Amino acid sequence: MKRGDDLFLSLAKEPPLCFQKEKKEKKMNKTGNVQEWLPFQEILQNGIIKLKNNSLVKILTISPVNFNLKSTMEKEAILTSYKTFLKTCNFNIQILIQSNKEDLSKHISQIEKQNKNEEEHIFKLSQEYISFIQNLNLERKSSSKNFYILIKEVPQNKKQKLEQNEENIACEKLNDDYFKIKEALSRCGNTVTDSNSKESTERIMYSFLNSRKEMVSI
Asked: What does the pLDDT look like over 48-65, one tens digit per residue?
């Protein structure tokens, strides 16, 4: 299995490897605008990202399973299926885990609002509960996680502009790879969906580029 180039990692410091221009090209002027700095050429209507080097990237969203709650037999079956998935991926992929810190402010505000007309002992219990979840969140840094797989198709000729038929063939190859991943991970109990519209891809990209979220790259 080939390891996919980093796509979103350390964007705040420098463009990831697969978004960087070729070594022979001159370094980007630091005074350039954001459009010049970002390695994207455009997001196609089918949700696929086209890079400035003509490479195409497709984003898949993965719904996880709670492995710890599975029986021993189920765990063995999942691990066997995951090995099959890795052997199936004879193309560039990257697994990303996006961690979003939980915001408890709305939940706490709702409790405080309901407490206004409560009796004293109920109010006291509610305040203790609020203090408990705040401390728990601070100690454990509770967060929700989003899981993605990125698949990439690299054209043979990166210098010339892709013809429409070449772009269509590359998109079809990415879709074929998507269905391979979907079928393999379904045996593990995961649900796999692709970002198949420009709007859905923009939302995902916005969450990586504009929000303060931790991300782990595998």
From this structure: 999 888 889 999 999 999
